């Protein structure tokens, strides 16, 4: 391409002697041809001087492919033919790695045999009443114990439940009372209240109930305790404040058979 442009430039310069308008065009073509031809010749010269660094192959690569010179044979053994490929393992004697040594642990004296552990003994069955029984009762179990306890007094009982939260109201009627004519002789409210001392505000609704039904005797039974103000309020208004120690004392007045019946209810065996 450079030579062609160079020839066109020379021809135009020769015609410019006859037509001066072609002088500039001929000079431009001549100059362009010289540049293209010179660049081509220069690239050809320098391409042979510089080798591609990425095409360089180290000498040991041929050894890996078995193309290197064969290893000199030992004295008295025939040499390998020139065309035989030699693996790199045969040319270089690589030292074999030594097997790893396991650390020697010091021998410890044998441990004495430990005696077999005995299975824990099962707890003894509960046969008597104790204050700790109230801590394991559910609200429903406590309500059932109170119902049975007041029913063992010899009075007719009419029970009203307070719902899933626990608690019952027990109306006590005389066995000789006429149905619909004689009112209850006493009323009892029973609620577990675990770990919470009862104050006056918990007992006051019982006084309102006594006034509405004109009942002069009442009992508030709980497995918890009462504050001092609550005890004074109950005593002044004719209410028997029965805490867990009072319940245990009342249960102790029942017959052994009745106590076992109450214990079975408290343990969930009814």
UniProtKB/TrEMBL annotation:
Pfam families: Mrr_cat
Region (Disordered): 94-122
Pro residues: compositionally biased ranges: 96-113
BP term (GO), one: DNA restriction-modification system
Superkingdom as given in the UniProt entry: Bacteria
GO MF, one example: endonuclease activity
InterPro entries in alphabetical order: Restrct_endonuc-II-like, Restrct_endonuc_IV_Mrr, tRNA_endonuc-like_dom_sf
Residues of the Restriction endonuclease type IV Mrr domain: 135-251
Name of this chain's protein: Restriction endonuclease type IV Mrr domain-containing protein
């Amino acid at each position: 391409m450079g030579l062609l442009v160079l020839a066109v430039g020379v021809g135009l310069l020769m015609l410019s002697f006859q037509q001066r308008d072609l002088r500039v065009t001929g000079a431009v073509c001549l100059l362009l041809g010289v540049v293209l031809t010179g660049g081509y010749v220069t690239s050809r010269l320098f391409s042979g001087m510089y080798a591609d660094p990425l095409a360089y192959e180290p000498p040991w690569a041929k050894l890996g492919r078995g193309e290197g010179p064969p290893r000199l044979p030992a004295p008295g053994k025939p040499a390998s033919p020139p065309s035989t490929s030699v693996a790199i393992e045969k040319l270089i004697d690589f030292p074999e790695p030594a097997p790893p040594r396991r650390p020697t642990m010091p021998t410890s004296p044998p441990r004495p045999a430990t005696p077999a552990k005995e299975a824990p003994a099962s707890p003894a069955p509960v046969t008597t009443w104790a204050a700790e029984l109230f801590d394991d009762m559910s609200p429903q179990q406590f309500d059932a114990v109170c119902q049975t306890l007041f029913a063992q007094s010899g009075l007719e009982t009419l029970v009203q439940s307070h719902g899933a939260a626990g608690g019952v109201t027990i109306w006590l009627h005389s066995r000789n009372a006429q149905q619909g004519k004689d009112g209850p002789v006493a009323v009892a409210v029973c609620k577990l209240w675990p770990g919470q001392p009862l104050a006056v505000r918990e007992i006051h609704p019982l006084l309102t109930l006594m006034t509405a039904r004109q009942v002069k005797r009442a009992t508030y039974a709980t497995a918890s305790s009462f504050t001092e103000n609550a005890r004074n309020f109950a005593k002044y208004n004719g209410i028997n404040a029965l805490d867990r120690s009072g319940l245990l004392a009342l249960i102790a007045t029942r017959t052994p058979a009745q106590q076992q019946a109450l214990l079975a209810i408290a343990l969930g065996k009814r």
